[in-house]
Structure formats: C-alpha cells, structure tokens
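Hey, quick one: can you model this chain's 3D structure?
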Amino acid sequence: MRRADRLFQIIQILRRSTRPVTAVALAEELEVSKRTVYRDVADLIGQRVPVEGEAGFGYVLGAGYDMPPLMLTPDEVEAVVLGAQWVANRADKVLANAALDVVAKLAAVLPEHLRIFVAEPSVGAEPSLEVQEEDIDSSMIRSAIRSGEGILMRYRSEAGEETERTIWPVLLGYAETSQLLIAWCELRGDFRHFRIERIMQMETLSEGIGINQRELRRRWGRWRAEHL
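Sure thing. Here's the predicted structure for all 228 residues.
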C-alpha cells in the first residue's frame, strides 16, 4: 500500500470508530508495523489533521474534521453494490427501490474505469429464497423510529395469543427470510423482539415516546449486553 493511501486509510479507520483506536489495531488492519503507524500518525498531525491521543492509549479523529471528497476504491464500490443487492432482495419495497437508486446514482458519477465494478462486480448477494407479502408497512415503522413516535399494535404470539401493545421502537432488523422489530414493550416492561409478520394491526402515536431516541438506543444496548 502506498504511503498516501495508508495515510488516507488511517483517517478512514479513525472516522468510522466511536472509540480510540490503538496503534496495534491500526497496524493489524493496515498490515504494517506499529513503528510505521506512529510515524504515519505523526505525519498526519504535522499536516494539521486533528488526530488526538498517544501511544498506548489510542487515537481519535477530532470532532468537526472534514476531508475533501475522494474517489471510491474498487473494494468500496463493490461493498456498496453488494449491500444494495442484499437490500433490494430482502427489504420492503421503499428500501428496495432506494437500494437500486443508490447503485444507479453511483454508476452515473463514477469515472469510466470504475463503472465495471458496478456493472460486473466480483461479488453478489444470493436472491432471497422466500419472499413474503407484507401486510404491515415497514416504512411506517422506520418513520416512527426516526421521529421518536410510539406504536400501538395488535400482535399475535407464536402460540396464537393476541395482545394489544404500546411499544417504543428502536430498530427494524432484517434477516434472510424475516424482519424483526426491536422495541421497548410497555405491556412487558422490557425490550422485546417482534416478528413483523405477526403484527396484525399498527398505528403510530403522535404524542411520541417521551424519551430521546438516542437514550432509548443506549438503554437497548445495555440490555443487549446483559441478555445476549
């Protein structure tokens, strides 16, 4: 890897991390020595890139740092295409169409030598073997999560029991053949996973859930660490 590419990659690694990244971790991902990492970080700081931290503790990228737009690499292009293929085959229609739009936009702005990685990528997502018709609008759930609204729903358990629940949605998860809604359930007083195909009726609550969405997600993170 060229030194310029390596410096750029260090910035990318720090940018995507929410915690300090150690020199050891950087060295392993870049496949270089720790000494090389120390030297590269020093060079970045010398170029006024706001890398903060020190050896033994880890490095973070200063808040507000903005790097000029740079062209994607072939691996990055194929990663986007692979993800879009998976979403187009498994998500609700709105997200599926959005994934196809992303690929079309990507192909339109890429230079000629990179378009081959969109048209003929070396990776591919297998089409879903089981496509389920949706009775529930998943885009409504995603909108409720974004806006911090609660949901009132009628839910059928695996045993066939029907209950009415008020939930605070956290995340809509996609598996190979199913979708799971992760939410705080007022009826159970705890976080629960609900299968979308078992939701019989649903409506959003305009008054909101009464808690910051970021805090709700933090609480779910703690719950997940304790239970999973």
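One thing worth noting: The chain has three domains: 3-61, 74-119, 138-227.
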